[in-house]
Design goal:
The structure holds 2 protein chains of 2 kinds.
Chain A (H helix, E strand, L loop, with lengths): L2 H15 L4 H22 L2 H8 L2 H8 L9 H30 L7 E5 L3 H46 L2 H14 L27 H20 L5 E7 L5 E7 L6 H25 L4 H24 L7 H13 L10 H41 L1
Antiparallel strand pairs in A: 1-3, 2-3
Chain B lengths: L1 H26 L4 E2 H10 L6 H13 L3 E6 L6 E6 L1 H28 L1
Antiparallel strand pairs in B: 1-3, 2-3
The chains are: A mainly alpha, B alpha+beta.
C-alpha cells in the first residue's frame, strides 16, 4: 500500500468514525483499516475496496450501536460546544444583571448600608443570583437542543435523498414537494475521489480562545445594554457598630452614553462575530486570518474613539471616589485617585495588546499551515 | 419482470438473514479475524457482505456470544473473534433448532412435490 492509498484509506476511516459515538471510534477505526487492507489485497486496490464498502455515511449507520439518537454523533461535538457556550453566556449575564437589578443600581453615585454582616450579604446575593440563572439556563438548553434537532433531521433527510434508490428517492421527493419547499438533489453514485482530506491536528484552532471571545463579548454586551451602571468602582467598608456600607460609583459617563454605547457594541460585535467564525471554521485558514485582522482593526478603532476622543469616564469621578473615602474614614485624601487620561491609556493598551497578540499568532500559524500544505502537495505531485 | 427479480432478491435476503448468526457462530470455535470469516463462509457457499458481517460481529460480542482480542504482533493489527462458552451453549441450541426446522422443511417440500 503506497502513500496515496494510505491517504485514501485515512480519509474513508475518518469519514466513518466521525459519525459514530466517541467510545466506538478508536476500535471501529482500527477494525476498518484491517478490513480495507484485506479487501484491497483481494480486489487489487484500496479504491476498489472503498467502492465495494460504499458511502462512509451509510457504512457508519450500520456500525452504530445506538442508532436512535436525538442528535447524531456527527453533530454531537458541535452541539456540546454550542450548548456550553450558550449556557455560559446566558448564566453569567443573568447572574450579573439580576444582581444589578436587585440592588437598584442607577446612573450615579450610590451608597447602600446593610445591617447584616458582609459574609451573610455575599451568600444571600450569590444564592439569589444562582436562582435567577435557572430559568434562562433551561430556556437556553431547550432552544439549542431544538435547533440542533431540527438541523440534524434536515441533514438526515438530505443524506437519505442523496443515497436512496431511485424509486425511494422519487417517493420522498414527491412527499417533500407536497410538504414544503423541496430539499432535493440529484442522486449521484459514490466515488472515493469525493472524500475530503482529514483535517491536520496542528492546523486546528484553539477552541478555548474562540469560546472565551464569544462568552466575554456576549456577557459584556448584555451588561452594557441592560445594566451598564454595574461597571462601577466598588468600595466596601465595615461600619463602626454593625453592618457595612457599599459605595457604587459608576465609571462611565451616562450623559454621553448614546455615543459611547454604539462604539462599545460595535467593538464587541466584531469580537463576537470573529469568535463564532473561528469556531465554525475550526482551523487556521486565510479567511480566519482576514476575519481576525478586520475584527481587530474595528476593536482598536472603537477603543481609540471611545477612550481617546469621547469623554468616556464619569465627570468628576476622582471627586466621587475622594468623597467616598472621606465618608468612610473621615480623612481627606489630597492625591489624585482617578486620572481619566491614565485610565484611558491603560484600557487602550490592554485592548491593543490583546488584539495584536491574537492577530499576530493567527497570521503566523496560518502562514505556517499554508506553507506545510503547499510542501505536501508539491511532494505528492 | 424487474419487480419479480426485486421481490425474489428481497425474499432471499430475508431467508439468509435468519441464518447469519448461526453461520458465524459455527465458524468461530477457533479465533478468526473478520475478513478470514468472510472468506471461510464464502468457501462454504455462504456469501456475506463485510458491511453486514463486521457490525454483526460487534453485536454478537456485546451480547456475550463472542469475545474479541487484538493481535498486534503481525505485520498489521488484527482483531480475532472466538465463541465464548455462553456462545457455544447458544450455538448448540440454535443448531438443534435448525436441524429440526430443516427436517420439517424437507418434509414439507417433499410432500408438495
Amino acid at each position: 500500500m503506497d502513500d496515496k492509498d494510505r491517504e485514501l484509506m485515512d480519509r474513508y476511516v475518518y469519514q466513518v468514525v466521525r459519525r459514530l459515538p466517541k467510545k466506538q471510534r478508536n476500535d471501529v477505526g482500527m477494525e476498518l483499516r484491517e478490513l480495507i487492507g484485506d479487501m484491497a489485497e483481494e480486489k487489487g486496490s484500496v479504491r476498489e475496496a472503498l467502492v465495494a464498502l460504499g458511502e462512509p455515511a451509510e457504512f457508519a449507520k450500520i456500525y452504530d450501536d445506538e442508532p436512535n439518537h436525538l442528535i447524531r454523533p456527527v453533530y454531537l461535538d458541535a452541539y456540546w460546544t454550542v450548548l456550553r457556550i450558550a449556557l455560559l453566556c446566558v448564566m453569567i449575564a443573568a447572574f450579573l444583571i439580576s444582581y444589578a437589578v436587585r440592588n437598584d443600581f442607577y446612573h450615579g453615585y450610590l451608597s447602600a448600608s446593610f445591617g447584616t454582616s458582609f459574609v451573610e450579604y455575599i451568600i444571600e446575593e450569590i444564592v439569589l443570583s444562582l436562582f435567577s440563572m435557572i430559568v434562562p439556563a433551561f430556556a437556553m438548553f431547550g432552544i439549542v437542543t431544538l435547533i440542533f434537532f431540527i438541523f440534524d433531521r434536515d441533514m438526515a433527510m438530505r443524506e437519505y435523498l442523496n443515497t436512496a434508490t431511485h424509486e425511494e428517492s422519487q417517493r420522498m421527493r414527491m412527499k417533500a414537494i407536497s410538504n414544503r419547499s423541496a430539499i432535493v438533489r440529484k442522486q449521484t453514485t459514490w466515488s472515493p475521489s469525493r472524500l475530503s482530506p482529514v483535517p491536520d491536528r496542528k492546523a486546528l484552532l484553539f477552541r478555548i480562545v474562540s469560546i472565551a471571545s464569544i462568552v466575554f463579548s456576549f456577557v459584556s454586551g448584555a451588561v452594557f445594554l441592560l445594566q451598564p451602571q454595574l461597571i462601577s468602582f466598588f468600595r466596601i467598608y465595615v461600619e463602626e457598630f454593625s453592618g457595612f456600607t457599599i459605595d457604587y460609583i459608576p465609571l462611565f459617563n451616562f450623559e454621553k452614553w448614546d455615543l459611547i454605547l454604539p462604539l462599545f457594541m460595535t467593538g464587541l460585535f466584531a469580537m463576537l462575530a470573529d469568535g463564532i467564525f473561528r469556531l465554525v471554521i475550526g482551523r487556521y485558514h486565510r479567511k480566519v486570518m482576514i476575519s481576525g485582522i478586520v475584527s481587530g482593526v474595528i476593536q482598536i478603532i472603537c477603543g481609540i474613539v471611545a477612550f481617546k476622543i469621547l469623554p468616556v469616564w464619569m465627570p468628576e469621578l476622582d471627586d466621587a471616589i475622594r468623597n467616598s473615602y472621606q465618608n468612610s474614614s473621615g480623612r481627606i485624601k489630597s492625591e489624585v485617585l482617578f486620572d481619566p487620561q491614565v485610565a484611558s491609556n491603560i484600557v487602550l493598551a490592554v485592548i491593543v495588546f490583546a488584539v495584536l497578540l491574537k492577530v499576530s499568532l493567527t497570521v503566523y500559524r496560518t502562514l505556517r499551515v499554508e506553507a506545510k500544505e503547499k510542501r505536501l502537495s508539491a511532494d505528492k505531485a | 419482470m424487474g419487480t419479480d427479480k426485486g421481490l425474489i432478491d428481497s425474499l432471499r435476503l430475508e431467508l439468509r438473514r435468519g441464518t447469519l448468526v448461526l453461520s458465524v457462530l459455527s465458524r468461530t470455535d477457533e479465533p478468526k479475524y473478520g475478513y478470514a470469516l468472510v472468506q471461510s463462509l464464502l468457501d462454504m457457499g455462504v456469501p456475506i457482505d463485510p458491511n453486514t458481517l463486521y457490525p454483526l460481529l460487534r453485536r454478537l460480542e456485546s451480547q456475550g456470544l463472542l469475545i474479541s482480542e487484538w493481535e498486534t504482533d503481525g505485520p498489521k493489527p488484527r482483531k480475532y473473534y472466538r465463541r465464548t462458552p455462553f456462545g457455544t451453549e447458544i450455538y448448540r441450541e440454535l443448531r438443534n433448532e435448525w436441524n429440526q426446522m430443516a427436517g420439517a422443511m424437507e418434509l414439507l417440500m417433499k410432500e408438495e412435490s
